[in-house]
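ok so for the tutorial part 2 we go from a plain amino acid sequence to predicted structure tokens. step 1 is just haveing the sequence, like this:
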Amino acid sequence: MKTLREIILGNRLFFGLFIFFFAVGLIALLAIGKANSFVDLNPYHRVTLDTIFGWITFLGNGIFSVILFLVFLLQRRWSRATQVIAAFLLSALVTQLLKNLFSMPRPKQFFPSGKYPYFIDGVTNVGFASFPSGHTTSAFALVTLLAIFTPNQKAKVAFLLCGIAVGYSRIYLGQHFLSDVLTGSCIGTVTAVLIHWLFVEKLQSLPLFARG
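step 2 — the prediction. this is what the tokens look like for a chain of 212 residues:
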């Protein structure tokens, strides 16, 4: 059995770096604002980078959580499989509720025509589903659980960097603001921690989940 405190302390490197990332982003957001932070984080665009970040952003697609869920099932790691799919579904539900509640414009909808030159045809979307970033939420829900599952410290850092890369890709591709990404990262991380705590504290003793 683990308490929330033990989960956090057992992964202090991952969560410490996450808090640092979140704090830096939040300070930047508060200092220069939503619009300026978006522009400042997008100073350089090339076709090659468009392609690279297009692939990186795909890592935030929920299909990766589903694939990992199936892999854990094949390995008969019932607890891990259930945690992955539960964190994905719960974080997605929270994200969709917030999207519908706030209905915030995406950057292309937000900026006047011609104000920002790097929107990508066929990639950048319009509409009012900007807040929060669903891809970032999904990515952080997954990488947080993977970081908790592994004892390898370097792997924990690598997982966090993957989550951050997905978050930045959403800004680079013109889909979201920094505020959307920060909120999504927080939702995904908190959801993953709570799901993990629920399983190890409440359900781990059940025979079905005995093998992690």
